């Protein structure tokens, strides 16, 4: 791994045209780099973070390895069995750092990619513009995930709310909400885990979701993962926007979550209709309104794919999504997407990295 200082930044891009530039050193990007290395394909990995770990390095410390869902093995080096009480962020940061060193992966950081353009026509190299200069690439593997694109849905009156609003991306500890009235918005795992963590800390909690929580007794095993990937892939093949993770997977009805439902913590009140200075307003079917007081509203409303850097290439279809066949983008085969669509899950990202590496190798061979 190479860390850029001020002196080396100027020389960092003086490498001519790379066969492959990989953007992002999370699970999908490291998988792609590993397989490119094994194939003998020249490449560089540009990562915006100051150190290894991908999005996991930003997770709150109370999210332990035992409480996290889906920290998958990277190819060639199993994760093993870390202490389940250790913060997941520390586990993954250490694991990814060891992985990069073990396989001598060409990761350069911190480098934030701001745009990818095609200045020399459809058959020429791509220009990868960053905050540390520009790289040139015959093929690009975009593995930027979703962490940098938190989704904040609009609700009437949100600008009038006098308390604190935060997205789970910026959450750090439940102690910040001790003895407060807290409303948690969103139907995914992050919302569920936060609500359970606030028990005995917050004065009150209220769960708000647009639709009833999608509890499922189905085991989250490889067969389940393949079915989820199939459903999401159907949308990417049609050029449609991808589904949220929870829309595709549902929520696992574990014993812990069952007990939370029985206690009333994990029972959704539906979605509030508007926000007021001191809380949120729910409406009954007959139109009767009820104000629920709130000091803090936490938006556990997920993320969108962080692909704004690809906008100059105009890859989107009329339906709003980017059509891919596997990882190869239909509108520009020089671009491969991993951690997008079906490969956004932890089950799919490692396999997608391998597919992208093979496709990139074939293209530049």
Write the layout of secondary structure elements.
Blueprint: E1 2-3, H1 6-9, E2 17-23, H2 27-39, E3 43-46, H3 88-102, E4 107-109, E5 113-117, E6 126-130, E7 133-142, E8 164-167, E9 181-185, H4 189-198, E10 204-208, E11 215-216, H5 222-237, H6 245-249, E12 251-252, H7 255-263, E13 274-276, E14 279-283, E15 289-293, E16 296-299, E17 324-325, E18 328-329, E19 335-337, H8 346-364
Parallel strand pairs: 1-4, 2-3, 2-7, 3-4, 7-19, 8-16, 9-10, 9-16, 11-12
Antiparallel strand pairs: 5-6, 6-7, 13-14, 14-15, 17-18
Helix pairs in contact: 2-8
Order of H and E elements: EHEHEHEEEEEEHEEHHEHEEEEEEEH
Strand content: 15-25%
Low-confidence stretches: 5-11
Largest sheet descriptor: 8 strands, mixed
pLDDT average, as an integer? 87
- Give the helix/strand class: alpha/beta
What is the global morphology? globular
What is the gist of this entry?
The protein is 25% helix and 21% strand.
Description of the structure:
- α2 runs parallel beside α8.
- The protein is globular and about 65 Å long.
- Helices cover 25% and strands 21% of the residues.
- The protein is an alpha/beta fold.
- Strands 1, 2, 3, 4, 5, 6, 7 and 19 form an eight-stranded mixed β-sheet that branches.
Descriptive labels:
single chain, 365 residues, alpha/beta, 8-stranded mixed beta sheet, 19 strands, globular
